[in-house]
Batch of 4 targets.
Target 1
Amino acid sequence: MADDTLTAKQEVKQEVCVKEEAKSEAGSSDEIKGESQAIATTNGGAAREDQIKKTEVKVKVKAEATDTETQTVKAEVDVKSDTNTNDTNGGAASEKAVTPKDETPAVVKTDPDLIRKIINQVEYYFGDANLMKDKFLQTKIKEDNGWVALSILLTFNRLKSLSEDVSVIISALDESTTGLLQISMDRQKVRRSVDHPLPNQTEEWKVELAARSAYAKGFPLDVTLDKLLSFLGSFGKVDHIQMRRDREKKFKRSVFVIFVSKEGCSKFMDQEELKFETDDAEPLLRQMKDDYFNVKKEARKQMKGNKQKEKEEERIKQAKATEDEFQAKITHGTIMVLSGFEGKMDRQDVKNFFNDKDDCGTVVWVDLHEEKKEVRLRFKEENQAKDILEKLKDPDTGKVKVLSQTLEGLVLEGDEESSHWKGIFESQSRKRKAPGGGGGRGRGRGGKRHRGGRR
């Protein structure tokens, strides 16, 4: 122990010698500077002035080097003296004493709130909730065995807003007690501790995550993330907060929060009534995150069902409107069907049979179906076919005698009548759309009569 004390004294003495040598060097530098000035005064000229400047630079560099060496020697002597003192007191020399790093900026030492914010922010970057989805940070982690330079983290606006000084951030991280982060030897990088690997996204992990994830609504529109962290952190350490926003980036007054522990989440949810900051604020609406999504899912399902119901009702309404419009175009009770013809039938003969009689109305159209031995007549006036059929029916057999043939007769009604009229309207539509169609006579607008110009 005495030898150690003697060694320390010798080193102090060596330091004094170094200081004297430094002074001597400084004196020599003054002499050199004086010689340089004398050369400039005696000879004059630009060349000499250049030489003076070069000489002064060399002297300055040498003096600075001497000061640096002196300071280095002094630091080493101070450290060794502290080490000898510890040995003298019977304690082993600690790593912190051998590698002095008590260089924590004063602002960090006196501002525990800043320390807390820095720790929370950096641990958020490397926490489960963020790191699992942060593609940029995942890429950087792969580049250097998990390490990420503080210079990269300082490109993140929120950390940058707390401090742009790497030493401030590192010194704050020294105070973390979670063990989540590791600091590199050069104190310029951090990484997630190898003792805290990212969890595998198993079903068990998802259940555990759900048990500490909550939803809350009712916060002011102008609330800040710091205030949310402070408020929610009073129930337990917070892993992640998502301030929910609409498409215009406007805060929806609601958040998703993931607590580090289930106990913190339970404490938050178990409050009988919870208000943010002031007693006159509206009570917060709170749900477990999974319950919130289940309610939303059911609401969306209900909404979808309502929309489908409304859509079906609208479809029915449109169909009814179309049907009503269609029925309005139909002349009801005008289609007579005569079946059972023998031999060949002539359309015009059948038409004339009715039109030549004073009491058989007016037939405007005849459809002849020889394969069915059937003819369909369309009368001009509503219910005319029904009235005429009743007149022509034999009272005993109920059959109709037309052109010396005894036929079965009926009048189309209901769906059969509608189907027949749809066929009529479709046929008319096809004729209108066909080239040269339009229902009128003549060559149309493209004929010679309508070419325009003078003859």
Note: The chain has 17 helices and twelve strands.
Target 2
Amino acid sequence: MFGEDKGVHMFIVALRNQNGKLYKGVTVSDCGAKFGLNAIDNGRMWFDNVKIPREMLLNKYADVTKDGEYVTQFDSAQRVFTTSIGSLVGGRVTISKISLQCMKVGLETAIRYSYQRRQFSSPSSQMENKLIDYPIHQRRLFPYLASTYVFNEISYSIIAEYREFLELDPSDPKSEIMSKNIHFLSSLAKPLCSWEMAKSLRSCRECCGGQGIGSVNRIAVLIQDTESFLTFEGDNYILLQQATRQILKDYHIFKTQSMCSDRISFLNNSKKMPSPVDLLDKNFHIWAFEQRERLLLNKSVELITISLTESTDAFEAWNKCVPLTTELAISHFEREALVHYYQAIDRVEIPEIREGLTMLGQLFALWRLHESPSFLRYFNYKDWNIGTYQLNQTIERLCNSIKLVSIDLLEGFGIPPHLLGPIAFYQNGEAYFAKDNMENHQ
């Protein structure tokens, strides 16, 4: 306005007149058929010198008076913009939660099916084995069951903080602090939950064989409709970069001002490796996850420093570091999720329930030690007195133990039977003819 940049603002723009004709300067186009979510229309819009009334400005946080004066309660254009788009953070929070719900549907369908579907038998047996009895089948499903429970716990924490934020007045100083923290958390949760969901649903689909392809059994449809989650509300890798910048900013303040934020408070505690190492000990798990994040944090700072000295272009220097900083962001969220989960387990009063939930936390941690590129790339497990065979065998024993309580753990999802794929309760072709009676045969 009057030669001064006031930043990005949102407006309501009418596309068509009362006769349904597009206004002059407005062009629209349909995006056509998509991989999934075809019930939702998507289109493109172009505007060429389209004029709109002043009243079409979304003016909750900034406005223009009749006299042409720009008014706002905030002290900068950036603050107006970030506050205005703050509601979009809710989209990331929601996608994180929906991703976990879709995982639950896929996992419960696939695991229940594996208790009924029989395939092959030993020469000494006349009865074929259930799929769930095969260790390889357990390893294809139970690690995702574990991550669903672990990620679900921290998602509740993020949702609770987001609800508290929505109840605050935007002018409240606490609002800006919470807005930044929720943006940080959602920029981590959305990528990690949606990625885990995508991998989980594909594994569930494969574990159901040909039945997993049938639309009636829901898993294939979920894969189609949730693939867009990976790019909804921002590309996952871009979101992780935003979160990483905050971690590095906190680390810089910690190093220069000796002020440590809650995000990296573990840096104040130089814990020693538990001795002797017990692969099922939660203290060892948390220590290992802290070691990974500490190392990735130091390596990221070191690489950024080197890149900046080698290039005068800060943008180019940062891009060279993104693969490493992405691992840092992932390690941070997984550590926070594991800590939240173990804290939640400590509040469980019923021993039998606590035991089953503890096994899931143990499997989550050990599966990361077994599969995570950052763990495998930067750590020598021999230094921790761990053998890869020992790690593998412990995971196998955990999966076998989880099998004994897996139905109880699935019940914990609280999913109504009619929302699951019919193969969760029927074998083969029967699933297609008995869906209406599913609840009676649960």
Note: The beta strands are 26-30, 43-47, 62-64, 70-72.
Target 3
Amino acid sequence: LGELVEKMDLDHDGFISEEEMRKWLKNVAAKYVIQDVDRTFDEYKAEFKTDFVTFDQHKTKISDDYDEEEDSEDEDLQHAIARDKRRFEKADANGDGKLSKEEFADFLHPEESERMRDVVIEEALDDLDTNKDGRIDLEEYTKDMWNDDSRTAPEWVETEKKQFTDTRDK
């Protein structure tokens, strides 16, 4: 633990400030993304013998988890394919239908790419809109944060409900 604190303590004052913690966490997350992209891109390269990723290749990989006869019409699979198709097309910066490693990084981790922001927002809204009416209502909003009906919701959930009603749902 002491070695970790030394790495995080950028100004060497013996304490970890909030800013030092933020920088450390951002650095750790960035390393994870790089490792994940490297590992996954290398899997595609090895399996498909190419230096790029096409949507058909990706579709093949995600479909491998489903039984071809039983689940080919599976709603979750079809939703995942449609979602990934939108994400793939946005990540394909040059529009050639093939993702380079850099484009694949945007596809795999759109939250890390400024130009993928619209996709991240669209996917988040799609996830929250569980009744698929095109709107996020109070129940959908709070269920995403607190989904334990067996206990009374903590005070912060009530605060979020009020904030949703007073501010966010306008």
Note: The chain has nine helices and two strands.
Target 4
Amino acid sequence: MTSNELLKLCGELLESKNEGVRKEAALLIGGLVVLMNARDLVVESQVMPVLQEHLTDSSLEVREAVAWALCRLSGSRDGVDRLVETVTVGVMVKAFIQYSKSEDTLFLMLLLEAFINLSEYDDGIEGMLETGLTKSLIALLENCNEDLAKRTLHVLMQIGMNHQGKQEGVAENAIASMENFLANEKSLETRRIAAALVMSLTINNNGKVKAVATQQGKHPKILKLLYKCLLTSEEGLRVNSKQAIHNISDLPAGFEYSVSILSKNLEILDEVFSYKAIKPLLRLLPKLNTYKEPPKLDSNKLGHHQRYLKAIHFLTSKYPEAITEAIDTVNVAQKLGPFLSDESGVGKETASTLKAICQKDTHNGEVLLAFIEKYGDEGIKRTMVKYSDLMAVISK
């Protein structure tokens, strides 16, 4: 019996009223399609329409056997071609959506494995778009075990590499859904795939906007989780997280949020942004005209401001380019001036930073002198005695 005849026979047996026969027929097809000549014959043998029909068989065991056969077929490029050519991808998607809220874990797992294989190719992804699959996958993530979640995330990640797939993922709030899968208690592999999905979706401009959506006065949770991923030693997770942060930082708000969070760890801040972090760090400091009683510091925000000042000092000490970036900020000396006071807790770092700036830019030296003269009665002038080297630079 030829492979074509055997496949035809299996197709006929799939129509049997006996579910055991249907199951064995599907399993035999799955065994045959690992052979190239059998994959070439699945269209000619007309077995594909029968497999499609029994993806929703009344018997769970038959459905699982059919899903296994299609999963095996999807494991090669020419097998994917057959699934695309016979419009089987759409049928698989419909079956997945139909049973996605069931407890048919193995059936769903097999279809997800097939989707992973299919989504390695553009034409495989195309059959999944505008079908409701993305919405169904995200809904599944709300209540499934981690093995199922990993495969679901993998499918979403690969669909998200497609332009339209990104749009669908963003529209269905996939980025917010990743918060649960970037958490420390998840496996490194799960976190790596979740970070890769966020990385992919934040290439899309609407994805960047959704990533920085936050409750007023709070940092976006997704950025805080990506930062924690950078604290691990898993290279793939770190690479994905770093690129996701870069993507989000294309938005000014995203850049400031990212720098604020990463300033907790100067090595990571340097690794991700280097001297480019200077301008957003300076923007995070208050302008003098926003002080209630200038130059009295706001004690409620001082902890954050101290962190930013230490980061600015670290970067300007390491990179000449960082000093240039600082000078490019209007009247930077006036913004830093209030932190020369003893109450700031970062007077030494501020003085060192201002010295480096004023050595390269006389205008900021003049601005700082004017600031000291105006607010000398507030204690800044007395504090400046400790920073004679800075005074020597600006008094020339």
Note: Residues 42 and 48 are 6 Å apart (CA to CA).
